[in-house]
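Forwarding the complex inputs:
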Amino acid sequence: MESSTYPNDKLIAMSRNFVNVVCHHETGHDREVVIGREKKLMCSKYWGIACDVHSRLYQEAGNTYEGITGVPCTVFADPTGKELFREAGGLGASELIDQMEKALKQVPGEKIPYEIWAAAKKQVADGEAAFAKEDFKKAVEAWTKVAKMKLKGVKALGEEALKKAEEKGNELLQEGESKIESEKEEAKKILKKVADQFKPLECAKKAAELLKGLGKGK
Amino acid sequence: MKKVCTALLLLPAMAPALYAQHSKDKVAQNGVIWATSWEEALQEAQARNVPIHFTVHKDN
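Prediction (whole assembly, two chains):
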């Protein structure tokens, strides 16, 4: 299956509708590949992972489904990991695609295709990197894009990340407020930062209101 | 729908580094994306509401 079934284009496309897990105890299929400018070891049987991954998965999850006596064995499970059905023995690409279609029909509700999920995760990670560098504007923009996406599961990723931004914004807002009486110019600087960098979050709106008030009082 | 289309259009720029993997003996540019841990697999399957394709193999 490793050399004939999994490299099949139609099978690859279908597999994007699943989370794919391979448990294979033996190692020794790694070979060196170049990714960008880096040399890495990658398994020659399973695309994109090294042998230590499929071997570790064998140890972690190889016994998850009872009664697997012969290999290869393919188990389909619902999103919680509960077994739907299994197929013992090797499967050709078209046979595996048929089984995948059968499994997909058994999971109701809106599904997030891999490509959209990966793009959203990338946006969230970019936001995390910007946030760590205190480029809050870039972080909030990246997370807001994800939070505005239509698919619920993707939207939740963005919303969760934005909570962290709101928290940081409120922290700065409080700092700014606390300095209004004693260090007015410094307070304005902090509030401007929150109003500019945390838009469209609630903390940015509050900061803008406070700045407006300070302007009137001038 | 517009957002979904936008995400798909952005994909080439966002594709994981693995898509670019290559070597002298021509590693495939595309393949089944395998999970790197069981815990992550369960989390992702629940977040995406997709089934799990779980397979057990051994060397011949």
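Chain B touches chain A through 46 residues (CB under 8 Å).
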